[in-house]
UniProtKB/TrEMBL annotation:
Entry superkingdom: Bacteria
Organism: Pseudogulbenkiania ferrooxidans EGD-HP2
Record SUPFAM superfamilies: alpha/beta-Hydrolases (SSF53474), TerB-like (SSF158682)
Protein name per its UniProtKB record: 3-hydroxyalkanoate synthetase
InterPro entries associated with the record: AB_hydrolase_fold, DUF3141, PHA/PHB_synthase, TerB-like
């Protein structure tokens, strides 16, 4: 018994010695990585805080040289050695990164990224970057004009038939992109809004506490105060600190502990990310005031209340002519799905209005990825971003409406695999505006934000009149610089660097620890105890965050839901909450009436392509689901048969939209006039056969579609033969290799 006790105590003592040897070594290596982080910060700052792109680039338009100079630039990305040369005939890609405190580059932070996807597919790729310090006098309106000039330059560089540029707006870059797309639709192709907030009041009760921040601070005056203390410049480090406070467990514990616990393999990843996270940029006071007053608190963008160019231009998101793709995630606590999507309900009461406005909106929801993961996760880049980018031509010709992009894995027995290039298949399922609203818990909770908006306006006027002039007289460039350097994010990096004489020997000690490294085993009881303590610490910080957020929401509701507060600021406490603040007026109604009148003349006008498309749309429009496999099959058919060989992508897109409208407007008339488009019997028979083959590319033809095929055959007077049974699938033959493949819309 004594020997057993002795052996147990000896084993425990050995575990203790192993644990402390490992702990000391980890501690030295951990501190040395923090020192390297500080050195990286100082080097990055000394080099002018360049973008953290992993790709080389050439600046082709420097915004500082424009008539209205801004600290923005348009860069052309050079493809790396492992990517094919860019093809100028392919659709160009443009990535706009967020200017929300950090520097640019997160959209091309890794090879598996938004930019990397475009380069691997041979697309010319451009990047809208910005410099650390804004030009004096620069405003959001100046940036808006510069970005329009950038996209015009890209369009001019690619005048072929590849299509307008595909533009990606990450986070805050998304709202900037929508403003450009709505005011210059001729220069913008499909747009992807990745984690971009457009409806700032939206959210779910008990979650999304960041939307209450403006109300808790009394409005937007604090942004002005910070800008005045910065001598006319707003420090982006404050925005970064706001993000960090949303998850204190990660900020104060989990991020550091994860590095400590995985010190042997996390060093490079940590330093790469911190180079971007610690590279804070500045905004002009006027820029931050515009953002906070018009977006964060005012929520004016999705309501059509943003005016630019001295009121001559109203930004109406319904004026965007190209497809809008929205990518959001349930794991995003900065831009939840409601803030990314509720603007649709702000603009349209139902899908019929979307179709009437000829707008195509596609959204894709991820289950769990966080906000930054939307831009930098390799898994997201290789799945969602890759599939959406690959399906751009299909998205560009989707009939107007609202769709959800559903991406699924393929399997060996899946029909139509020959029409897919990767491991996923993407389809677009029709949705209603009510499906968007069902993502949240209603909109009554947004009524309080109307009171916040009014309180913010009052406080802003008081601040501008009685406080701002005094502060502007007291601050200097030196005091502003001192305040920025004393910000905790900068101070800790500067202190924990090689410039601190107290850390002179740290690098040598870390080198010795690395040479003598003895990692502890995972089954060591003291290591397991350490993991448990870490989990407890994170859990306590999460609990504190939840209590803080609950108290914030309760206080917000008690103040801004109170009838007294509404009455004090001149609002009727019994007012109904109205989402749609404008309807377009009689001008829009007259425009739509004339458009309908013009389109109705096309029932009997057109050629073989129009007839073929009308047949396909009539049969497929039943359930409205659009699959990428039939679309790819259409390309092969048009290449093999020469059908529509001279059509450009834009003409093909218009033909699809025109025939979709005609079928939806009057199915019977569309069917009765089909023979006017396909006058020959052999031509009609071939078109019907092609439609049957294309529909089977996505799997067995449904009973509903079989019935529609029968009605089509009867209307055309064609003996269709035996329509494929629901359990059958027809395989389309490959195109003849000898046929010339011109660059048409089918490609």
């Amino acid at each position: 018994m004594a020997e057993t006790d002795k052996g147990g105590w000896w084993s425990l003592g050995q575990h203790w010695a192993d644990y402390w040897t490992d702990a000391v070594q980890r501690g030295l290596l951990f501190c040395d990585v923090l020192r390297e982080r500080g050195d990286t910060y100082l080097d990055h700052q000394a080099s002018g805080n360049p973008p953290v792109l992993v790709f080389d680039f050439d600046i082709i338009v420097d915004g500082r040289e424009l008539d209205e100079p801004v600290n923005y630039a348009l860069a052309a990305i050079r493809p790396p050695a492992n990517c094919p040369p860019t093809d100028p005939e392919l659709r160009p890609f443009v990535v706009i990164d967020p200017r929300a405190g950090h520097g640019p580059g997160i959209g091309g932070f890794k090879m598996d990224s938004e930019i990397g996807i475009a380069l691997r597919q041979g697309h010319p790729c451009y990047f809208v970057m910005f410099f650390p310090v804004p030009v004096p006098g620069q405003t959001i309106e100046c940036v808006w004009r510069a970005e329009k000039a950038f996209l015009r330059r890209v369009r001019e560089a690619h005048p072929g038939n590849a299509g307008k540029p595909f533009v990606i707006g990450n986070c805050q870059g998304g709202w900037a992109l929508t403003m450009v797309a709505a005011s210059a639709p001729e220069d913008v192709g499909p747009i992807l809004l990745a984690g971009s907030p457009l409806s700032y009041w939206a959210g779910v009760a008990g979650k999304n506490p960041m939307r209450y921040q403006g109300g808790m601070l009394g409005g937007t005056w604090l942004a002005s105060l910070t800008g005045d203390l910065g001598h006319g410049q707003f420090d982006g480090a404050h925005l970064v600190s706001n993000f960090e406070q949303m998850d204190p467990a990660n900020t104060y514990w989990k991020k550091g502990y994860h590095l400590y616990a995985n010190i042997d393999k996390e060093r490079n990843r940590f330093l790469e990310f911190e180079r971007w996270w610690g590279g804070h940029y500045l905004l002009n006071k006027e820029e931050m005031e515009w953002i906070s007053q018009n977006l964060f608190v005012g929520n004016r963008l999705s309501r059509g209340e943003v005016y630019l160019d001295d009121g001559a231009v109203r930004i109406d998101l319904r004026q965007i002519r190209s497809p809008i793709i929205v990518f959001a995630s349930w794991g995003d606590n900065i831009t939840p799905p409601q803030q990314a999507l509720y603007w649709i309900a702000d603009l349209y009461k139902d899908v019929e209005e979307i179709r009437g406005n000829e707008q195509t909106i596609v959204y894709c929801l991820h289950e769990q990825i966080g906000h930054l993961g939307i831009f930098v996760s390799a898994g997201v880049a290789n799945k969602e971003h890759s599939e959406l980018a690959s399906a751009l031509d299909l998205i560009d010709v989707l009939p107007p409406g609202l769709y959800e992009a559903v991406i699924t894995d393929t399997y060996p027995e899946m029909p139509g695999l020959q029409y897919l290039q990767g491991r996923y298949v993407i389809r677009f399922e029709p949705r209603e505006v009510d499906d968007i609203l069902a993502l949240g818990d209603g909109r009554d909770g947004e009524r309080a934000f109307q009171v916040v908006k009014r309180v913010a306006e009052i406080n802003q006027q008081l601040y501008d009149s009685f406080v701002s002039p005094w502060l502007q007289a007291c601050t200097t460039p030196w005091t502003a610089h001192l305040m920025r350097e004393m910000h905790p994010s900068r101070f800790e990096r500067r202190w924990f660097s090689s410039r601190n004489p107290l850390l002179n020997g740290l690098s040598d000690w870390a080198g010795k620890a690395r040479e003598a490294r003895k990692p502890v085993d995972g089954d060591n009881p003291f290591w397991q105890w350490q993991q448990t303590v870490s989990d407890w610490t994170a859990s306590m910080l999460d609990g504190w965050r939840d209590q803080r957020d609950a108290m914030k929401e309760m206080t917000f509701r008690a103040v801004y839901d109170a009838p007294l507060t509404a009455a004090l600021v001149g609002l009727d406490p019994r007012r109904p909450y109205r989402v749609r603040s404008h309807g377009g007026g009689w001008e829009r109604e007259e425009m739509l009436r004339l458009k309908r009148r013009e389109l109705e003349e096309h029932y009997s006008e057109g050629g073989a392509v129009d007839g073929f498309l009308r047949l396909l749309i009539y049969v497929a429009i039943g359930n409205g689901v659009v699959d990428v496999r039939p679309f790819n099959a259409i390309r092969r058919v048009m290449q093999d048969t020469g059908l529509g060989e001279e059509l450009t992508l834009e003409a093909f897109k218009q033909a699809v939209r025109r025939q979709t409208w005609l079928v939806r407007n009057d199915e019977k008339r569309a069917l009765a006039t089909i023979q006017d488009l396909l006058p020959g019997e052999a031509q009609r028979a071939m078109a019907l056969e092609l439609v049957m083959l294309l529909l089977s590319a996505a799997g067995p033809i449904s009973v509903e579609k079989q019935q529609r095929l029968g009605r089509v055959a009867l209307a055309m007077g064609v003996t269709a033969g035996e329509v494929p049974d629901a359990g059958e699938a027809v395989v389309l033959k490959k195109p003849r290799a000898t046929r010339s493949r011109k660059k048409t819309a089918a490609k």
